[in-house]
Request: fold
Amino acid sequence: MKKLTTLMFLTGFLALSGLTTYAQDADSATAVVQEPVKAKSPTPAPPQEEEFAPIPERSFHQVVKDQFIAGGWQFMSIVLLCLILGLAIAIERIITLNLATTNTKKLLAGVEDSLSSGGVKAAKELCKNTKGPVASIFTQGLMRMSEGIEMVEKSIISYGSVEMGKLEKGMVWISLFISLAPMLGFMGTVIGMIDAFDAIAAAGDVSPSLVANGIKVALLTTVGGLIVAVILQLFYNYLISKIDSLVNSMEDASISLVDILVKHNLSKS
Reply:
């Protein structure tokens, strides 16, 4: 009986040990099965930026050309013609007035030295060989030297007016173009607005697309005329200041010449 009990105990113990070992092996296998290899998900590609074709930059010349055409060639061409003619006259006047500028102090000193050394004839030769309105006035005054100082003064005043007229030559045309360019621009404005209202009347409806073209033409012609007037006005003011400077120089030099001639006559007597 004891042997049977011992045998049953040993059999149960062995069976229990086998079950424990099998359970541990099963747990290990389950752990391995429960931890599958995770597949790497593909990395999303970074979003690509949309490529836009670069907008070509227009030059200043191209922009002006486009606006000139959009403003209507009928009036814009006349405004451009005013600018070209006005600039041509202004540039010619600038060159002429710069060439007419004379060093009056040097000329007066030369006339005084010539009167002392060679008399009136030498002084006249010096003035004839010198360019500029001041030298021309001196020449006319010296030619009346034999008739007295009063005739010299009258000759200087009379010929001074002639030289002043020569200096102001062409200025009236620049003034005309300064006034004409904005007038043409405003005329284009009125015509553009008339076209806009005609489009409204024909369509029977007020739509921005209908009046936009006429208003654009009106504004462009106005801007064109004002730009021309501003440019020519700058040149005109410069020329006026240059003429005033030359006229003042002529008057001062003429007074100094009369003083030199009076001293010369006193020294002879």
